[in-house]
Amino acid sequence: MTPANRRPVPDSDQLDHDDQALVRKLRQLTVESDHFAEIFREAHGMHRTDLNALAVIMDAAATDRAMSPGELAEALHLSASATTALLDRLDAAELIERVRSRSDGRRVELRMREQAKDLGRQFFLPLSAALSREWAQFDSAERRAVARFLSASIAATVHTRSEMARQS
């Protein structure tokens, strides 16, 4: 969407912000994010799980955490065989590499290759720039409130998912 045909964001006092409205906004964001990721996925012949795996590995690297295949399986709720197939696809596409840990040679760590980082930057940088432009209208206190809101929403989702999985 270009700036000329982008809808302006209403002032906060014009937005519904009860629980139902917030859930609806989160759902809309999820659907739009999925549509955006689908374009990337289709362009590169990837599975949705491939994108999720790359995101999990990238997020771990951003916090200086090494991700093992077992940790990835746990994060994505995959079996060992499904994780192996996933990693084989990503490795064959030269998007990740499996390397021995420097501190524990028995441990395998997953690392994104430069090609994966380049692909991600090419595709996701325009979205990142658009988000940054939109977020510039929020002051520091508003951004902290949004960060708190998103963190609480993620925690509630993880908790509820875990409870439902435990009951199944």
TrEMBL record:
A Gene Ontology BP annotation from the UniProt entry: response to stress
Keywords of the record: DNA-binding
GO molecular function: DNA binding; DNA-binding transcription factor activity
Record-linked SMART domains: HTH_MARR
Record protein name field: DNA-binding MarR family transcriptional regulator
Residues in HTH marR-type domain copies: 19-155
One Pfam family, short name: MarR_2
Keyword DNA-binding recorded: yes
Ranges in coiled-coil conformation: none
Keyword DNA-binding: yes
